[in-house]
Fold these 3 entries.
Entry 1:
Amino acid sequence: MKRFWIALLTLILLLSACSPARLVAPESQESRRNAVPGEMSKSAAPAYEGVESASLIMPSDPSTDRLVIRNADLKIVVEDPVSALDEITRMAEEMGGFVVQSNLYKTQTEEGIEIPEASVIIRVPAERLNDALMQIKNLVKDKNTDILSENVSGQDVTKEYTDLKSRLTNLENAEKQLQRIMEEATKTEDVLAVYNQLVSVREQIEVLKGQIQYYEESAALSMISVTLRASAAVKPLTIGKWQPVGVARDALQATLNTLKFLANAAIWLVLYVIPVAVVIILPVWLIIRGLRRLFRRKTKPSQQDGSLQG
């Protein structure tokens, strides 16, 4: 019996060493996306005679393939957002991906005309991300003006993924040892004690498998978020070849430049010119004023003497 409890205590210490401080099963894909797995502890419990020790597995060697999650975000202007939305959906399916979310709605121009706009989120195989972006950008009429924004991001999760795999291996080894101990247990309280530990280990294993699966799926399928705006919503006002919107923009920019110059001049005047002038001019003025007063005092007695003699 003493040997049984020592073995159980050894495994409990091992589990506390390789388990994170807190493991919470993600409730949704979005919460998994924001979750950052904790670091595994590097200390291991001592092995007990007759019980195999589930040794901790350190992160892999540098030759391990990198696991990178690549996503993209695009805002483009198209003639018909509805047909462009259908084209993007068809493209994702042909590439072996799928549509995560799509929205089609209407907005109003300044003239009160309703125009459609759309947004779509798709997932495509990571190796075809650049091809997908190229096809989406081919939907615009002029790539110089109709691509409002483009952002491609990459997140290297190799370290987090390797740590999760190591912790999963450790927990699975500990689970096997607990099952062996429970088979050898004879008392009910011993069986219940080991069973509770097995339940805890199994919960942690399921959470780790979910996080590992999320990393693998996110790295295998890149996410592309596309916002589709109708060209009528961003089309500049033109009268013949004259574009008053461009003229107004230039006039506004000139006004801003002038105001900027005046503001800078005022700041220099208040913070530099006036203080320097006070420091330099005020002492000179005080010296001149003092000399003038001294000169006046000397000239008054001489004038009085001259008047008495006369």
Entry 2:
Amino acid sequence: MKKNRLLICFIFISVLFAACSAKAASSESAYEEKGYATDEMAMVAEAPAFEEVSYDAGAVPSVDVERVVIKNAELSLVVADPLSAVDTISKMADEKGGFVVNSYIYKVTSASGKELPAANVTIRVPAETLDETLTEIKALVEDADVDILSESVSGQDVTSEVTDLQSRLRNLQQAEEQLLEIMDKATDTEDVMAVFQQLTSIRQDIEVLQGQLKYYDESAKLSAVTISLEAKEAVAPISIGGWRPSITLQRAAQALVDGLKFIANALIWIVIFVAPIAVVIGLPIYFIIKASKKRQVEKKKIEKVKEK
């Protein structure tokens, strides 16, 4: 009888574990689909696991989840010396409590055939210093209007993902505790081995969820900034007596784009907003005028008949 109760309890835990495993597998698949870098995943795997929290089997713990937002930025700059800029950016990251994720230095050939250095560098800095860091990096250029080729800042809200992972983690930890209790009461070797296998699998799923939560936590705390650096000489525009026709061409092209954009926006407003209103108001007026002219024509015909 005691063995039957133990078997029933074991089956219940197995069903609970199967449900949690299915969710964990789908979460892991979605995690891989997001395209997270292999080196970042390795960094997460080597990071210390979250401290486990024990809950009563029948209790539902209340969780106050703070909003988790991952902010990243990208810059493309033209500087006098890309190599010196890489060193400056690396020191900047260290001073702010961040680090260099990777840096890549290569050479490009200018229009005159000269080989010049260029670089790509990615750093991570505390999220609260992201705006300050971007300002300091952009200060490395000589002319902000010309030498800052592009700048973008993105934010990804992962609060729902973190909440879901935390919920699954608590469920798995509770299932693990119940399996440990079953193992303590088990006396048959076969039952002990079966429970041990379930514990091994559930511990693997717990570590996967802890790694995912660790990744989100670190990504939210440390923003990634990717900077592309080109040498000033490599992109120097043609200058004739101080006149830079390429810059004038660039500004003219931008003005053309702005003008076309204004015309396109105006046409959209006319088609979407003005045209329907004109139809609603104009059609009744058109039919009223048409009916009025028709009555006048008929009236003139009647007068002509009377005159005859």
Entry 3:
Amino acid sequence: MRDGKKVLFSGMQATGNLTLGNYLGALKNWVSLSDEYECFYSVVDEHSITVRQDPSVLRQRARKLFALYIAAGLDPEKNCIYYQSHVSCHAELAWILNCFTYMGELQRMTQFKDKSSKHADNINAGLFTYPVLMAADILLYQTDVVPVGKDQLQHLELTRDIAQRFNAIYGDVFTIPEPYLGKAGAKIMSLQDPSKKMSKSDENENASIYLMDDPDTIMRKFKRAVTDSEASVRYREEQPGIRNLIDIYSACTGKTPEEIEKEFDGKGYGEFKPAVGEAVVSILKPLQDRCADLEKNKDYIDQAIKNNAEKAEYFAQKTLRKVQKKVGFPEKIR
């Protein structure tokens, strides 16, 4: 709790290109949380290097993601938006927390198993221990709530276990974070396989809408979206492809699935798919334009990066110094 507000933390990796799913499922909702919470939004670039990255591409994508946060409506004066790598406390606390995390806990992490199978030639220690760095990200800011999807819930549970274990030994040091249970963002599935989430790492480029896709590309991808042979716009489990398109149209227009069914009653997919594409273009084009304007304003972005890193460092250092003292590290002579 800070200034009467609970603290909220979240972040995104600066790898790949953000998708429509990232925007509708998370980023769009973050904007509405600024009034209710003291928000820390990180570009978690340290997490990105568990997989080999091209250094120049990683830098470019990290800066693009920073600009996208602001373009989406996150005010850098109101929210703390920062690069994880600019706050050394993340790595320092992660080392300490590694010593309070058990091997068995990390071996049970399903994402480690998934990523190991995808990157069999680079199963590094960072890939194994990155849930501890994630715990440090959260605990550094005495976070009360963390917006998480089902795939990240296991990591938050580990964070809670580590914090409770540390507190049991050293007293009330960490706030125990809770999952954010507010309005969930839309869960957007692949356009080519509606049984899977839309992913920025999907090898099929037609499966995902990327935030920087131009209107023609967006329209083409929706025309190729997998549907079914029923040819009716119905929000049913038996029609996962159409159900996904209805979810996307609903998230972009604010219309309910029932209203959408009525709107397209008696109309085929040939009319519905372009309508979904146009609705997506209508929300992404302004975002793309704002992002392009921000990227031209180098001084503004640089100042926001500097100011927010200093703010994040201030709060992170408070927690880190407390932890260092508890475990017995000598105090710095200032």
